[in-house]
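Field reference: sequence -> structure
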Amino acid sequence: MVKNQKKKRSNIVQKWIFVLLLSLVLVLGGLNLAKARGLLLIFPEPPQIVNQTISLGSLTLEQKIAQMVIVHGAEWNMNQWKKLQMGGIHLFALKTPELYQRIISEYQQNVTIPFLVTVDLEGCWNPFSYFKNFTAISEVNTTEGAYALGKEEGHFLKRLGFTVDFSPVVDLEDEIWKCRSFPGDEKEISRLAQAYIEGMQSEGILATAKHYPGKTLVIKDPHKYLVSAEISEEDLYPYLSLTSGSELKGVMVSHVISEGAVDSEGKPAVVSALVINKLKSNFSGLIFSDEVNMLGLKDYYASLEEMYLAVFGAGNDLIINFNDDPNEIHHMIQVVKKGVEEGQILEEQINASVRKVLGMKGFTVVE
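Structure field:
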């Protein structure tokens, strides 16, 4: 009898231990899931905006840094990107125009500062191929055709809710994809790109010339490899022409380690302050980094923290980071914030970029 009672008590204790352990596993699993989705982050309050005027002083340092970042605009982390007040979202291939319109509309709802909404539409590189085709840039050989293509693409993007297209490519040759560059020499490419940009921006879409300083498509793919190139004056010609004689709104800087007409000091161009400051001396528009998780940049550094400090410190206005984890993006913001506080990055440099970003979003920026 006594043995049976002890056995029953032992079974009850074991059951309770099992229930407690199971509960602990579920709680820890839930916390890990919440952390993975960025639900445990502390988010800042949005700034006060009156009549499209925003005071730079009303933004925290974290908010200013966040305004300099473009992230992948997935549905599952939409609330976290809103709460972190990121500067922009980038969308990849979806199956219907209605899906793009819905997602972009939901992103822009109830945000104090709207997102830049970016895409890569370059004719042959087309995220909309499920339902819409466009002429490849390599097939356009007249300024009339270039203007018409830019206008067609700009009208299409505006209707879906986009604000920025990472196009046109003005590399002189495309030996990787064979279809992303205009035909002709540097002067012909410049004329075609100018017409394309005018067509696109007439529809209210910001065009972006890429990939400065050139030769990005004639060597190994920088998505996969560290790459280097000798840059000629001919490679630079389209950028000098477009940034000095047009209403071009953006230039994207590549990860190519360059020498010759542009010397990136043995490092990827996108992290060379010398390269970016020289570009800024001739251009007042937005400077975009190429995506920072490409191995052509990432493999250059021993750590992500070192890379983050370098790409912000070099002077890029907008940094593209497609890491889907809000915790990692928050970590990047904190790394850069610490770099500013410790004097590794000048806060005035951050402020100058944020003024440009907010200005492109239609705000009047005051101190």
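Note: The chain has one domain: 67-327.
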